Amino acid sequence: MKATRRIVAGMLVALTAAISACAPAPVQRGPGAFSFGLIGDLPYLPREEQTLEDLLRAMDAQPLAFVVHDGDIKNGSSRCTDEVFRWNKSMFDSSRHPFIYVPGDNEWTDCHRGNNGGYDPRERLAKLRAVFYATDETLGARRFTLTRQSADPRYAEYRENVRWTFGRVLFVGLNIPGSNNNFGRSPDADTEYRARNAANLEWMRQAFDIVKRDDLLGLVLVIQADPFFEQPRGHRSRRGFEDFLAQLETGTVSLGRPVMLVHGDTHQYRLDQPMRDARNGRTVENFTRLETYGSPVLGWVRVTVDPADPKLFVVEPFPYVDRQ
Length: 324
What we know:
Blueprint: H1 2-20, E1 34-39, H2 46-60, E2 67-69, H3 82-93, E3 99-101, H4 121-132, E4 147-148, E5 162-166, E6 169-173, H5 178-181, H6 187-213, E7 218-222, H7 242-255, E8 259-263, E9 270-272, E10 287-291, E11 299-305, E12 313-319
Helix pairs in contact: 1-2, 3-4, 6-7
């Protein structure tokens, strides 16, 4: 019995150490400030299922308004089964905080690959919508209501495109995945892309209008794909993102208030300002790109919205350290 207790105690110490490594003390900011958490591109491997749970528990310990996963809940080679979807949903629902999930390419766009089971990407996207977006609420133990684009009859199928306002900042989730946004692979994929691209552009246009109309402090957009700011316009790696990038630039320059784009996809934590004004080539100073951690280097990111800070967004990365 004593040996068993020692083993259990040791496991608890190890788990506590792993969680504490990515669970910092609450940040202190001015009146009206709040924080939210970001993760993405996990779990890719069986052992990362435990990492996901550790990260969720670390964020549970923080006073966060909500948590967002910016896509890829499996790796690009594993099978796109209903069971994978349901397991991840159960994990997201275990979050103490409201939880929002934006879909990635590995769970639908890339499921046509034979090693994934040779699924129809459209069918997998429909399944994602049924599993993760069945109601108008967030996931998680504590929930709030989201506005879904599907409330507009013209875009009834796009339940994954969402928005919500918190602390005078508008947050928007868009289904813009990697693998070139499902563009250029086949005629059927291109048809899907064109319809979804039109819906995404409309949803983003509305977002900029809402920030202006309601005199909000700023805008946060969350997608899965790296849209390849660094590549020149027309480059083959960003053809599926050109319309998005053009409208994002136009809206950001016109808005003149802080805009943050959050994405995953290329698996490297980054915080930079890659947008250049097409008119003069200068950095667009009110735009920030934040890329979240991705397998195998994992962690979570805390973003604090502080109205007293001129940049509005205070970003703190917390890499995961497995102490076991």
